[in-house]
Each structure stands twice: as structure tokens, then as C-alpha cells.
Amino acid sequence: MATEEVNKPPSLPSYPQLIINAIEALNDKNGSNKTSISKYIESKYGDLPAGHTTLLSLHLNRMKEAGDLIFWKNNYMKAGPNAPPRRGRGRPPKPKVPLPPGAILSPARPRGRPPKDPPNAPPRSPKPKMASGTGKPRGRPRKMARPEGGIGGSSPTMMAAMVRPRGRPPKVKASALTEVSVEN
Predict the structure, then answer these.
(1) Which has more pLDDT, 75 or 105?
(2) What pLDDT band is residue 121 in, cutting at 50, 70 and 90?
(3) Closest by alpha carbon to 42, among 19, 61, 64?
């Protein structure tokens, strides 16, 4: 009863047909944007439903997903032979170089970590160690044990006097600093 009056008048064609007619009438080489399509439809068919902009966006997206329209540089154009190719998002893949005739492909390595050897498998020969060119072993050197006699065979009391305590040294007091005059 009142649903036909609310939705749209019977003289108005379907939205996909309105959109196709608008794009053909505007006949722009780069396609038509949503605003120009909407203005054309409003000027041609004055009596439009209340949610015209929402309906237009919905049908444009549906037609774009179905492949009836191509959306390129914020413009809609009809799908056809002169339309630019449709590209996905992101960087396009590199072109594959064809192999020369007679080339043999090696089997592809499987992805991931290789499986462990079964326990009853024959033992593998260990890899020979490569000698480094410098002659030094890799990594941090081993900590050397302190000699019993200390440095130069001095006594432990001498050793304690020479070793500095850990941490920041204490401040030197001003009274400890005295001026010494040098006379000729």
C-alpha cells in the first residue's frame, strides 16, 4: 500500500541502470566520480528517494565488486576493452624469467625445519672444522687463574695496597690539597 510510494516512484529505473546511463551520458575519458554521477541523476530525475546518496554508494560498490564497473583513480568507468587492467593491492610480483630449453629443475626444498634423523639411521660423518685464517679461537677467551705468588711474587699485604676498591673513588677533601711553592 504505502511501501511503493515510500521506496521510489514507478517511473524511476533501477539504480544500476541509472548509474550506467549517467556514466555513458557524461562520457568522460577517465571515468566519472560519485559526485558527478549523483548530480547527473538528480538533474535528469528530479524525484529521488530520501536516501539517494546512500543508495548510490551501495549500488556503486556492488557493481564494482561484480565487475560491471571499474574504480580507478577515484573514478568509475564501465568495464570494457579500453578500461585499465584491474590490479590488486600492494606491490606487483616480479615477472618470471622463462627457463632455457633443456634446463633441468632441481626438486624444491620443503619449507620449515628438517625432520630429525630416526634413531636407527646410520650415523652421519661429522662436518670437517674449517680453520679460521687468523689462528685465534672464536669467542671470548677463557678466564685465566690467578698465580699463587701474585704479581712478581709480592706478599698479599702489598697486593691489597695496590688493588683499588670497587666503585667510584671518594671525593678529595679541600684540606688535603695544600699549595706547594716551588722556589728556584
Answers:
(1) 75
(2) confident
(3) 19
